[in-house]
Amino acid sequence: MNINHYLKIAEELSVKLKQVTDTVALLDEGATVPFISRYRKEVTGSLDEVQVASIRDRVQQLRDLDKRREAILKSIKEQEKLTPELEEKINAAETMAVLEDLYLPYKPKRRTKATIAREKGLEPLANKIFEQESFDLEAEAAQYVDAEKEVNSTEEALQGARDIIAEWINENVELRKQMRDLFINEGKFTSKVIPGKEEEAQKYKDYFDWSEPIKTAPSHRVLAMRRGEKELFLMLDSQPEELDAIALMEKIVVQGAANTAVEQVKIAIKDAYKRLLKPSMETEVRLYTKKKADEEAIKVFAENLRQLLLGAPLGEKAVMAIDPGFRTGCKTVCLGPQGQLLGYDVIYPHENRKVAESGALVKHLVEKHQIEAIAIGNGTASRETESFVKSLGLPKHVIVVMVNESGASIYSASDVAREEFPDHDLTVRGAVSIGRRLMDPLAELVKIDPKSIGVGQYQHDVDQNALKSSLDDTVMSCVNGVGVEVNTASKQLLTYVSGLGPSLAQNIVKYRDENGPFKSREEIKKVPRLGDKAYEQAAGFLRIRNGINPLDRSAVHPESYTVVQKMAADLGVDVSDLMSSEELRQKVVLKNYVSETIGLPTLQDIMAELSKPGRDPRETFEVFSFQEGVNEMKDLQVGMKLPGVVTNITNFGAFVDVGVHQDGLVHLSHLADKYVSDPNEVVTVNQKVEVTVMEVDLGRKRIGLSMKSDPFAERPKGGKGGGRRPREEKEPEGDLAAKLAMLKGKFR
C-alpha cells in the first residue's frame, strides 16, 4: 500500500506511522482485532481494539480507493486521453468523490443532448460562445444551420451549443467540489406529505411540512424521512436555495463583461444546474447523509448491543424459567447449573380453577430441582405471573427476576434451537432461552441475530452489510473480552472466538463430544483442521477451568507460559503458588523478564491476570423488582416515581421498562438535571434507574418519563442549564410517538 496512505491513517488517528504499518502487517497475516489488541501490544504500541479496528477499516477504504483509481487510469489510458497532468490529479485524489469527478468527462455515457449536438457539428460554436468574448452571435450561429444535420434555425444551433456547454459545466471538477460543499453546508431537507395520504401517514405527521439543515439533521430524523419517502407517504428534497446555487456557478463560470455570449452561458448554467448538476448533487448528498446516518445508527446499535451482551450473569445456578401467557398458560422449564434442560410443564395461574394446582406444581419443581432463581419473561402476563410466583411463599433464597425476552421467539424457531432441542416444541425452546439468558446473557444471546434483540435504532433501514460487520465486531469483542470455557461453550459462542469461526467451532464441539472434556489448551491442537495459526489466535481466549495446567484457566497466552514458569522457578515455587500469593507476585521484578519477544505491557497484563485468573470481567448480578401494583399502562399516573430498567438507547433519549408491557421514553432533555448531548454519558442498557411519569397516552401507547430530580420544575430561560436542547433541535413529537410504537413495543 502507498506509504502516503499509512501517513494519512497515522495523522487521522493521532498514532505513529510504525504503529499503523505494523498493525496492518498483523491484519494482513490474518490476525484478529481482539488478538492484536490483547496479545501484540509490543508490536502495535499498545493500541486498543477501537484503534486497531479503525486502522483495519480505513486501510480497506483506501485500498478500495486505489482499486478504483487503477480502473479509472486504465479506462482513460485505453481511450488515449491520459495526460501527465490528469494522471497526477487522479493519483493525488484522496476521496472517491474527487476521483469520480475527474473521471466524469471520460466516463462512457449514454447518448446525451451534448452528444447529439456534437454529432451535428456544433462543438466549435460552443467553444466560441464559451470564450465569452463579444461577437455577432446570430451571424456565427447562422453558419451552423444545416438541414442535413437537422439544424434548422439559429436557435436550434444555439440550443445545441448550450447543451454542450452545460455538459462542460457539469463536468467542471472545481465547480462540483464547491457545489457539493454548498449542498451539504447550506442545503436543507424538506419533506411534505403526498396529497391524499394524510390519514395513512399519521406516524409521519410531523414531517408533513418539515424543513431542517442537511448539515445538522440527526441520523434518526434522516432515516425517518427516508423511510416515509420509501413507504410513499412523503416527498423528500435535499438541496440549497436555487438562487444561491446559480450564483455560485456564475461566479466560477462567467468571465468578463456582459455580452450576448455571456447571456448564452448563463442560460446554459441554469440548464446545467436543473438538468444535470442538481440531480447529481442531490443523489450524492442523499448517499452521503444516508451513510452518515447509517454510521451513527449502527454506532448506537453496537454500543447498546455491547452493554446488553455484557449484562451481569447470574452464574451457574439451577433456574426455573417461565414464559408467561394468559389463555395458553405459562410454559415452565427447569434448567441445571450448566443450562441443561431437566424438565418442563405448563401452569395456568391465571385460570381461577387452576391457581392452586399451578402453585403446588411450582413448589414441587422448586424443591425437586433445588431451584435457586426463577426467570420470568417480560411479555404478556409477566407482571401477573410475577405476582403469582411471589405469593407462593417460596424459600427466601429463591430469587424472582424479570428477564427481557426480546428475540426468544426468534431463537425458538431457529435452526440453532432445533439442533439443541429437536424433540421439543417452540414454547419449550423459548422458555429455555429466557432462563439461560438470566444465567449468562452473553452465552445465550449470541445464538440470536442481533437485529432481533431489540436494542437497535432503524436497524432495518441502514446498510445491512455495514450493520452486520459492526455487530459481528461487537459480539466478537464481548466474547473474547469475557473469555470462553471451552468444555461447556456452545458452537455459537465458540464461533465468535478469535481465529475460529463456524467450522472450527463445530469441530471443537464434535471432538469434545467424542473424547470428553479438554484437559489442557495443548489438547485443543488435536481438533481436526485447527492449525497453528488458528490456535495462536484462539488459545488465549479459551479457558479450561479444571485443566492440568493452572494457567489454562487464565487469559495468559500459552506462548507466555515459559516466562511465568521462569518467574515461579526464580522464586523457588510452583506456578500455582505464584497465582495464589500476592506476596510472591510482589517479589517479581518485571524488567528482568523483558526480551525481544515480550515487553513490559505484556508482562504487566500477565501479572494482572495471575492475580485474578479467569475472573469474569462483568458486573456482579443484582436482583431488581418492578413497583408492586403497577402492571399495566392504566395503572400509571402522572407524577409517579417508579423503578425501571433501561432497555434501549437512541440519539434522542432512552427507553425504560417500568413493568407495564410498554417501554417509556426518557427524552434527551429529561435524562439528567444537567444538559446532556449524548445519552450514553448518562445511561447504559440494563441499568437500573428511577423515573418519574410525565405523560401517559393510552391511545398511542406512549409513556413519557423523566430522570430529573424535579422534572416538573419550570425550566430556566436561556442557556443549557435546564437540560433542554435548543428549540431548533427539539424532537418532532410525532417522530417520538412513531418510534415508541415501532422501536420498543413489546412485540414477540
From TrEMBL:
Question: Where does the chain cross the membrane?
Answer: none
Q: Where is this region: Disordered?
A: 707-736
- Keywords (A to Z) from UniProt: Coiled coil
Q: Which GO terms describe its biological process?
A: nucleobase-containing compound metabolic process; translation
Residue stretches making up the S1 motif domain: 639-708
Q: Which PANTHER family does UniProt cross-reference here? A: 30S RIBOSOMAL PROTEIN S1, S1 RNA-BINDING DOMAIN-CONTAINING PROTEIN 1
This protein is called RNA-binding transcriptional accessory protein
Specify the species: Litoribacter ruber
